[in-house]
Amino acid sequence: MKKLGKVRPENVKKVARELIKLNPEKFNNDFQNNKEMVNALTHTSSVKLRNRIAGYITSLLSTSSSEEEEEESEEGEVKEQS
Fold first, then answer.
1. What pTM was estimated for this model as a whole?
2. Which domains, from first to last, does the chain contain?
């Protein structure tokens, strides 16, 4: 079953994806680190907007890392069964 996502403004998603695309090595699963990086790389008009962007980046990266772990564990199970 697929989880439903949170509703976020398109501008938050657009900025977050752009930042990840341009600086993938600077972001990780840590919200505090991502918040500092968003603050350093952008000129957001408010703290709330900065936090939303950092939160979405954290969410994207943690989701992608958990999916990779699931795929690796499934591959390991298939090899063991063979």
1. 0.75
2. 10-81 (1.10.60.20)
